[in-house]
Amino acid sequence: MLLHTKKQDKIPQELLMLRLCTLLILLLLAVIPDRAGAQDALVNSEVTTTNWEPESTPPKREFRGVWIATVFNTDYPKSPSPMRVAIKEQYKNLIAEFKRLGFNAVVVQVRPAGDAFYPSQLVPWSKFLTGKQGQPPIPSEFDPLEFMVEETHRMGMEFHAWMNPYRATVNLDTAGLHPTHVFNQHRDWLLTYGTRMYLNPGVPEVRKHIAEVVGEVVDNYDVDGIHFDDYFYPYKIKDVPFPDSATYYFYGQAFKNIDDWRRTNTDNLIMGISQRIRASKPHVKFGISPFGVWSNRSQNTMGSETSASVTSYDDLYADGIKWLKNGWIDYIAPQLYWNIGFAAADYAELVNWWSMRVKDQHLYIGQAAYKVGDNPEPKWQDPTEIPRQIAMNRNNIEVDGSIFYSAQSIKRNLLGLKDSLRTAFKAPALVPQIDYQTGRVPKIPRFKKVRSKDGDVKLKWRPHKDDTYIKPAYYIVYRFNGSRVGDYEDPRNILHVTSFLADAKKMVFMDRSAEAGKQYTYVVSAVNRQHQEGRPTESQPILKTERRVKKIKNRRVKKQKDKRSKKEKKEDEATPDFRF
């Protein structure tokens, strides 16, 4: 019989039930697919144009970046100008627009072609900034990069400095090259290929020079990341070999073939720059956005089920998988510039392939905003292609966000792309924290007051007393409907993310969206530079009226009296506490 009335029979019955539960759990585990299989199912699940809709709960943490290209003035500035006002206003307008769209990071090209968007001791001013290579802005003491970083942080966004390591010129016209340009300083470091000049990757002094250029930016600016794209060895020109055979003969005798030597040159560059960044500022991330296909499986057993005519490993000599395994980079953002179902390089296949190769680092997906409504492939005439790609990314546990190319393509709003992104990014998102990049977690802020001012709700708080020396990087203001705290992991409860602040001693925020007659509960938390969130403050529930704010006292739940006898308590305490 399973029904018992005596107290002493209760324990064996519970143990029996626990054994049955254990057996059931083991049976369930036996039929659950492994992680790889589960990811295959998630990534390859059908997401059609007709059934796509935004997911109910967006992620609280998601990298939402946009590439801002300066070469040929693609995105910024609209036209070169040495004047400070023009440089500043254009950038402020650009960054504000992407903040409104829900982005939380920008990747700005500050070294387009052996030049700089900042005062440098190593390379000349860029002609894409001021109109003439080597010409400083007016006034000369103005530092555009310092301004861009500060303005980006003021908007509560990360700034990643995008640098092209090897590209020295964008054409073969050398008349306009400044005396400090590498062409005039170290012409023996350069190789001409096609219509451009490149720093020779096989020369050790070149790698040292590039590391110094990167180090100058890391040392002198408060950047959040250093970013390289897919340009390492140049894309091949048909029937035109890259002219580095003499360099190979001089430096590559230990290698069996020139391909392995070239890959090693790129490896050494990445390793050296990684070491240089971490020696200076360990919190600065090093990220790379390689060509989207590492290698085809027909060429390499580790490759993807693709048939791309160009691959990163075989043609550009960039082995992103090795850089991940060796921990040289902190994130990788493969450029998956193809649509879902594209025969030669299926977006779904490549998201799945890359997601299986990240471990401790972050995986962001490079998205082809520039193809939307402007590509002959029929799928790029479908306004839901990018939203479906975002949904696919979010369904993959290893994908931490996206970077879109490029800013101008989004601003054009072809097929309503900008509107689609505004919908996808409606809820704010925090930049994901990289697990091994940690710092001192801020303590609970001192939530001072919730008051009414001019019909709005005014919040005031200060950092914790112990955080006065190393202050939080920024704060999160949560607002829950009603008089109780809700789900902290639902970003729709985030009302505001503050600017990245260096030395703020007190904070004030005005909630102008609170409606009269409704109850709200406010909570504040502090976040450090590594995006680690501290514990939240005690909640502040209020009732908003037309002219004032009324505080609501939290009702305490009355503790129920334990009616068990002493004997029953002892028997229950003796019962094993099984936890799964």
Provide a descriptive summary of the structure in words.
It contains 16 helices and 18 strands. The chain has helices spanning 10-31, 35-44, 84-100, 127-130, 144-154, 182-185, 204-220, 245-251, 258-280, 312-315, 320-325, 347-355, 385-394, 407-412, 417-424, 566-574, and strands at residues 63-68, 105-111, 158-163, 190-193, 196-199, 225-228, 285-288, 331-332, 362-368, 399-405, 446-453, 456-462, 474-481, 494-497, 507-511, 519-527, 540-544, 549-551. An eight-stranded parallel β-barrel has the order 1-2-3-6-7-8-9-10, surrounded by four helices. A hairpin with a 2-residue loop joins β11 and β12. InterPro entries: Divisome_Glycosyl_Hydrolase, FN3_sf, GH, GHL10, Ig-like_fold. Residues 547-567 have a biased composition (Basic residues). It comes from Flavilitoribacter nigricans (strain ATCC 23147 / DSM 23189 / NBRC 102662 / NCIMB 1420 / SS-2). Residues 530-580 are annotated as: Disordered.
Strand order of the largest sheet: 1-2-3-6-7-8-9-10
First-to-last CA distance: 28 Å
Strand content: 15-25%
- Assign the CATH architecture of the largest domain: Alpha-Beta Barrel
Mean pLDDT: 89
What coarse outline follows from CA principal-axis ratios? globular
- CATH class of the largest domain reads Alpha Beta
Main pleated-sheet profile: 8 strands, parallel, barrel
State the secondary-structure class: alpha/beta
Low-confidence stretches at least 5 residues in length (pLDDT < 50)? 1-12, 25-52, 572-580
CATH superfamily of the largest domain: Glycosidases
- Write down the domain tally: 2
Number of DSSP-assigned strands? 18
Helix content: 25-40%
Count, helices: 16
Keywords: Signal
Protein name: Glycosyl hydrolase-like 10 domain-containing protein
Pfam families: GHL10
InterPro entries: Divisome_Glycosyl_Hydrolase, FN3_sf, GH, GHL10, Ig-like_fold
